[in-house]
């Protein structure tokens, strides 16, 4: 019996596994844009940029963005299914659907390129619920998107998560979606 040809999804997954590190190395400008936009979002929402602010970078890869934010004085922890950070970044191994952190542990959670069911076996709904769980009340979830339509595709899913309040939608100039975790009286 002839071998079944790989599906387009399998091809994308394999290409990402083989090329993730090279891609991360080639995205310096994109990384600098993410860095600047995240800092801007923290300032706009009156979060201090210093060691008192604990940030979780979900899907941190080699930790380049997390290390940039650490140099700004933020306390940053990375989480990745394949942790491969270099340097002094504290990085945990784990999946975004089951984070190994306490409820309400982080002031800020950041993600970029996290939601891609074509490449990863993932439950986006569980990921969003976990992000809300590990955020402190009043904390921010900052999501860097490739394009504004990326948020449009997942908007209904995010609206189901009652713990998160939408603060900023993406535009062509600022490709960030920002949520604030609700505080309950």
TrEMBL record:
Coiled coil: none annotated. It comes from the Bacteria. Gene3D superfamilies: Vaccinia Virus protein VP39 (3.40.50.150). Residues 1-28 are annotated as: Disordered. InterPro entries: Methyltransf_11, SAM-dependent_MTases_sf. Pfam families: Methyltransf_11. GO terms for molecular function: S-adenosylmethionine-dependent methyltransferase activity. Residues 56-142 form the Methyltransferase type domain. This is Methyltransferase type 11 domain-containing protein. It comes from Candidatus Kaiserbacteria bacterium CG10_big_fil_rev_8_21_14_0_10_59_10.
